[in-house]
Amino acid sequence: MSVIRTCGLFIVNENDEVVCLHPTHHAIDFWSIPKGVIDEGETELEAAIRETWEESNITFDIKNTVFRELTPQRYKHGKKKLCSFAVLAGDNPRIDFSKFKLRCNSNVPKKRGGFPEVDAFGWVHVSRAKLFLHYPQVDALEELYTKKVAIVK
Asked: Are 35 and 136 in contact (CB under 8 A)?
């Protein structure tokens, strides 16, 4: 059985708020970080950056941004793995997180309806985000705040 790799970014501002998204047509209490499936030929970090732009309109220059790589989290069913990274305001003082304009730049495929992938956005304090993010994302967020997470070189 092959494992599907999803790649995403935890974007955390100076107030310990993380960007959270609501996928269109999902339960009202189901929120996520920007993430999605890796494309052929992409690295996990490249996929996380691309998915973040598609779903939130936030982009990062891979050469001029400090990223922290989190431990991949397996879903309980074993068919999926979350490969995530974090962009922290404290690591990136030249980036003005308050200037981000959140919006969705992508739609689901036409055969599934062609609607925007995301219908709501917000900056949510990390302590609150842990209450409604999917469990692999909560586990990754816990790691970010409880362990020394390495900077990607």
From this structure: no
Count CB neighbours of 116 within 10 A. Answer: 15
In angstroms, the CA 153 to CA 142 distance is 22
Cα 122 to chain centroid, rounded: 13
- What local confidence, expressed as pLDDT, does residue 77 receive? 85
Residue 110 DSSP class: G
Spatial neighbors of 67 by CB under 8 A, at least 6 apart, are 45, 60, 85, 86, 87, 151, 152
Question: Three-state SS for 98?
Answer: helix
* Structural domain harbouring 51: 4-146
- What gap in Å lies between CA 125 and CA 71, rounded to an integer? 22
Domain count, the chain: 1
- For the chain, how many residues are written? 153
What CATH number is given to the structural domain containing 61?
Answer: 3.90.79.10
pTM of the predicted model, to two decimals? Answer: 0.93
Q: pLDDT under 50 in the chain at which residues?
A: none
